[in-house]
Amino acid sequence: MTLLSAQALHVTYPRRHGSPPARAVDGVELGIGAGEIVALVGESGCGKTTLARALLGLEPPTGGRVVFDGEPLRYSSRALKAYRRRVQLVLQDPTGSLNPRHTVYEAVAEGLRIHGHGGDERTAVAEALSRAGLRPAERFFLRYPHELSGGQRQRVVIAGALVLQPELLVADEPVASLDASVRGEILALLLRLRADLGLSALVVTHDLGLAWNIADRVAVMYLGRIVETGDVEQVLTAPRHPYTQALLSVLPEAPGDPVVLTGEPPDPTRIPAGCRFHARCQVLASGEAERAGVADTCRNEDPEVLGGDARAQVACHWARARITA
Fold it and tell me: Interhelix angle for 180-197 vs 150-162, to 10°?
């Protein structure tokens, strides 16, 4: 069952002086199933965080809709408050997420107080900290963020999300600011929470190694749109989109030479005609697309938007030509 989905989702930002709007999210279809971990990957500026904010209700879409548990998301204060009990955000910078003047207890209890928790607050906070791996929980109640390690601070942030007993976590680069030795512990924690609580998660990351270790499914984003999606093993061992191939080629264990993409991603106010990746595409530049008979199509025809289901899909004329050949 699909728990959360983006349906034909658009988020645009107006520009001054009559300039075209920036199309940060440009017709995304993406679904997250109950108990599923989906990794949303791509380089900086591709729209990952904007998409995550839209799924959380923090960024109202300019087109399309967000659907949670079969119901379209509504944007009244009351509806969003109820929604955020069920869908919680975990940010990448635990130091910036935590108020330095609040104790660990106050940081975790804040969500309960905002949402009017009717039960035993102390028990709920202790349980959330224990689930996040801070045991015995009472030892951490009166500590301040500066007294904790980076990994412990991230666990406090996760406990603050868990205390409301959500059904889905949106984790934006959850281990980017942590030492390598701590990253594995936090990833193992997220997997354990899925196993113990049935939690779903959308993990936003630029790190394909992280996606490999934690996700069931991966969605690769480029310039506001999903360009490849499928089971994590399938996408990361046999990528079909040239952009995914380029991202994977720079990993230390990748075979062959790294693919160095030319230039920067285009300005989202001036998305090129045809395939939005064609100006940087190594397949087009090498003549492979020409030999496959799709070079003109790449330059002039926009690939169709991928569906939001769990099928393996790719938005690339060349990759599709190879499949049908």
Answer: 20
Residue 111 lies inside a defined structural domain of this protein:
yes
Q: Which amino acid is at 136?
A: P
Query: Residue 193 contacts by C-beta under 8 Å, 6 or more apart in sequence?
Result: 131, 158, 162, 169, 199
Range of the domain at 151: 96-164
Please report whether residue 118 resides in a domain: yes
Dist CA 187 CA 172 (whole Å): 13
Q: What pLDDT does 325 receive?
A: 62
C-alpha 79/C-alpha 109 separation (Å) is 21
CA nearest to 159, candidates 195, 201, 111: 111
C-beta separation of 74 from 66 below 8 A: no
pLDDT in tens, 242-260: 999 999 998 887 878 889 8
For every residue of 148-188, DSSP letters joined together read: S-HHHHHHHHHHHHHTT--SEEEEESTTTTS-HHHHHHHHH
Burial (CB count <10 Å: 0-12, 13-18, 19+), residue 176: middle
Q: pTM above the 0.85 mark?
A: yes
Question: Which segments of 44-140 does DSSP mark as H helices, in order?
Answer: 48-55, 77-86, 94-97, 104-114, 121-131
- Residue 81 within a domain: no
For 260-305, give the DSSP string. Answer: ---S-PPPTTSPPSSSTTGGG-HHHHTTHHHHTT-HHHHHH-PPPP
